[in-house]
Specification:
Organism: Pedobacter antarcticus 4BY
CATH architecture of the largest domain: Roll
CATH topology of the largest domain: SH3 type barrels
Main location: membrane
Family: Belongs to the YajC family.
Radius of gyration: 26 Å
Distance between the termini: 79 Å
Strand content: 15-25%
Strand order of the largest sheet: 4-3-2-1-5
Number of domains: 2
Structural class: alpha+beta
Order of helices and strands: HEEEEEH
Protein name: Sec translocon accessory complex subunit YajC
Helix content: 40-55%
Number of helices: 2
Number of strands: 5
Pfam family, one: YajC
CATH class of the largest domain: Mainly Beta
């Protein structure tokens, strides 16, 4: 009888420890992992949709226009006709679409 009581107490203790851990993992997934995966997917789509002539902004804040592109890089023309080559992962924003989406005052 005493052994049964001890086993039942041990099981409820284990269950009360397991439930909060599962809840923490679920919250962590929905607030940390899932948004990062969605953001990475959206960035990949943004870079795939870019074409020559699009105005872009890099992660360094450089504004320019795409003049050439290959599998891994973009050649961007900035003010004064200077051309700079950037990796596709350095693209932060498609300024062509962003300027058309801004509300008119």
């Amino acid at each position: 009888m005493t052994a049964t009581v001890i086993l039942q107490a041990g099981q409820s203790s284990m269950l009360s420890t397991l439930v909060p851990m599962v809840l923490i993992m679920v919250v962590f997934y929905f607030f940390m992992i899932r948004p990062q995966v969605k953001k990475a997917k959206d960035h990949k789509k943004l870079v795939a949709d870019l074409k020559k002539g699009d105005k872009i902004v890099t992660t360094a804040g450089i504004h320019g226009r795409i003049v050439d592109m290959n599998e891994l890089t973009f050649l961007i023309e900035v003010e004064g006709g200077t051309k700079i080559r950037f990796d596709k992962s350095a693209i932060s924003l498609d300024a062509t679409k962003a300027s058309t989406e801004l509300p008119k005052a």
